[in-house]
Amino acid sequence: MPLIETRALNKRFGGLHVTNNVDLALETGEVHCLIGPNGAGKSTLFRLILGEHTPSSGAILFAGEDITALKSFQRIRRGMSVKFQVPGIFKALSVRQNLEIAMQHHYEPAHLAEEIDRLLAFLKLTADAGRLAGNLSHGQKQWLEIGMAISLKPRLLLLDEPTAGMSPEETHATGEMIQRLNAEGMTVLAVEHDMAFVRQVAHKVTVLHLGKVFAQGSIDDIVANEDVAAIYLGQTTAH
Ligand code: ADP
Ligand code: MG
Asked: Where is the ABC transporter domain (predicted)?
């Protein structure tokens, strides 16, 4: 049974058909990358999965349960988490304080510090725990955001362009972080432009174009697909 599945998912904004009969399924333990030109509908699909948009038609299943009618907080309670493109960290608070805010109501006080230390080590931010989040490098801010998204140990992690604006070194380090998470069992759906990152982490790749699933397969299948290359012509993939 897939952990997350969309069935004939449609979303229209007025006359704009942004998500068009999307069928997507991720098995538990899979790292799945969603690629596609700007405006393909990737972020909209994330918002539908998280419950921030109501689909025009179709269904979303989480671990076999139809969650289409559930609100976002109910989906998060069932084990979904997301890191969006837009930053959500508190810049005037320290790295540790940011994690405390995300975690304090969910862990016993006696275990909170220990859980935060473990997460800081995972994020390679132990030495920066006392720094203001606003003073971190761009890459470290993104890692802190990933940390906040995984702080409650979700079953499904959605990442919208996790490496946007990162150097190749930071991008590679982020890929290693995703691989370590996945080795602990995390299922990940990531929107990504950087094909080196996709090659590093993805078990499977879905190409979205004009709201439809255009192609699906291994990264080797996708890069060899001339039809996929054609939809990127005239588009800049650099962000
Ligand atoms: P991507 O993340 O692949 O770049 P988006 O999902 O952000 O694409 O957007 C897909 C299309 O849907 C774009 O044409 C965008 O302008 C449109 N769109 C996204 N959100 C809304 C909205 N809330 N209202 C109207 N149109 C929207
Ligand atoms: Mg987007």
From this structure: 4-235
